[in-house]
Specification:
The protein is α+β, with helices and mostly antiparallel strands. The protein has a single domain, classed as tt1808, chain A. Helices cover 25% and strands 28% of the residues. It contains four helices and 14 strands. The strands form five sheets. A six-stranded mixed sheet has the order 5-8-9-10-11-12, with helices on both faces. A two-stranded parallel sheet has the order 1-2. α2 packs antiparallel against α4. It is globular and about 45 Å long. The N and C termini lie far apart (61 Å).
Length: 208
Amino acid sequence: MLTITKRRTMIGPDDHGRKMSLKDFEFIKTEEDYHYELSRGYITVSQVAKYFHALIVSLIRDSLGAYKTLNPERLHLILNSMECKLLIPEWESERHPDIAVYLTKPKGPKNNTLWRRWIPELTIEVVSERSTDRNYIEKREEYWTLGIKEYWIVDGKRKRIVVLRRGKLDWIEKRLGAEDVLATKLLPGFMLLIKAIMDAVAEVESDE
């Protein structure tokens, strides 16, 4: 007698490290209260961001939001990890950046296949204890493959922001410290005061 195995329709924290194709992962249901990505063919499950991580994301998003209010014609949407996804077939990966900046509206149907073709100009990742390799190595390679114009790696522990801007053959890398100001040609007139972020980080560390 032929036995038919039903494909699982939901994944949870116990599926961390499980092998899966991007095709199967793209529309799969997930248990709530966890963050899911597909990292080069393997499911990565992490808990909701800790305060340290959430604070940095919030400060940067607030700065971008203030810029958008003053320049609505230059910036379309600022989305977080639960609001967008990046599909990278070449790497069998699905990523959910901490912040994704879209300068223009998507083209074509606005259905659930939207994320296959709508690519942000800028992605921002905040480094956490378990995401160092993913942010510095894997996503650096994957976001280049995807055609993203800029990728910022915000590292509160090391008190720096690594800015990667697209060059002809590879990223052009610049490392900024607490006394620097981050500006980008993608957003004329935008300035991120890195000291304000690092001061907030220092205050959290002093409370621990």
